[in-house]
Amino acid sequence: MNWRTATVVQLCEGMRESQDYSATPILADALQDADYPHAGVLARLRNDLPLWEAERLVALIYSDKTADAVEWLDGYALELGPAGYPMYFDLENDAPEVVMTYEMLVNAAREYATTGDDGLGAGSMSWSNATCDENYKQFWDKWALVTGGAKPNDDDGFFSCSC
Question: Concatenated DSSP letters for 104-124?
Answer without folding.
Answer: HHHHHHHHHHHHS--SS-S--
